[in-house]
Amino acid sequence: MKIPEWIKHHYPKPETLEQIRNLLRGFELHTICEEAKCPNIGECFKEGTATFLILGNICTRNCKFCAVKKGKPKPIDSDEPKRVAQAVRKLGLSHTVITSVTRDDLSDGGASHFANVIKEISRDRSRPVPTVEVLLPLLDSKGLEEVIDAHPEVINHNIETIERLYPEVRLRFKYSESLEFLRQAKQLNNFILTKSGFMLGLGEVEKEIVKMMEDLRKHEVDILTIGQYLRPSGKHLPVVNYIHPDKFLEYKKIGYSLGFKYIVSGPYVRSSYKAQEALAKCTI
């Protein structure tokens, strides 16, 4: 399929990438920006922002759209929360996003590790404490409660795609489970902001997309991200169609009419894109 003119590769300046990469390597940390081959890596790194990938960089699941490595993960690094907090301070971040691979090998899915990272970031009171967004894999109720009790400002969990495509796109996941997870987050703390996102270009049709947005609002999701699926490699699902930027704006308008508090929608939008801006707009 011919790539349309509005889809252009972003080529960040090598020095911009190297500066952040060297800092992160010094702390022995990973970012989802690099592992998932995010097209916004140059823009975000230039602004001094990154989404930290904790619990290693090897996932126990094999979603057909994701570039993160699959296999047997290494044991938990108990010192990682402190190093993340140090990197956040070194970068001077006022808002940070923490995500992880899915860890089916862990009894709590990594919930206690997420909580420890949040607590370490909040521990330094010598300067304004950064706000924290966590992009979570599916956790059980106890694990989700433990993360929420650590007081992040935003709980994010991506729905990723329409219900019909789940068996093909999100192996071992269920559409209804992701919706219920988002509902539970709001139920556990009604003051916390909940967030989700999905990609277009996998063969969904408009009525299915609108239905998905309606489902997210019924489960009290506040913030929404909508982006174009871009194939990471020849081993991943092919792009069925490229969505015109005007259509992304149309879905954004529909989303606001449904009651979302903030929406970021466009071909290159990813889960953490403009995350700080979204939080600021929702807490004015």
Task: Describe the protein's topology.
Elements: H1 14-26, E1 30-31, H2 32-35, H3 41-46, E2 51-54, E3 58-59, E4 69-70, H4 80-91, E5 95-100, H5 111-123, E6 131-135, H6 141-148, E7 154-156, H7 166-169, H8 175-188, E8 193-200, H9 206-218, E9 223-228, H10 245-258, E10 262-265, H11 275-282
Pick out its properties.
284 residues; alpha/beta; TIM Barrel; eight-stranded mixed β-sheet; two-stranded parallel ribbon; 10 strands; globular
Description:
- The model has no long low-confidence stretch (mean pLDDT 88).
- With 284 residues, this protein is an alpha/beta fold.
- Helix 4 crosses helix 5.
- It starts with 13 loop residues before the first helix and ends with a helix.
- Helix content is 38%, strand content 15%.
- Helix 5 (111-123) links the parallel strand 5 (95-100) and strand 6 (131-135).
- The strands form 2 sheets. The chain has an 8-stranded mixed β-sheet, sandwiched between helices.
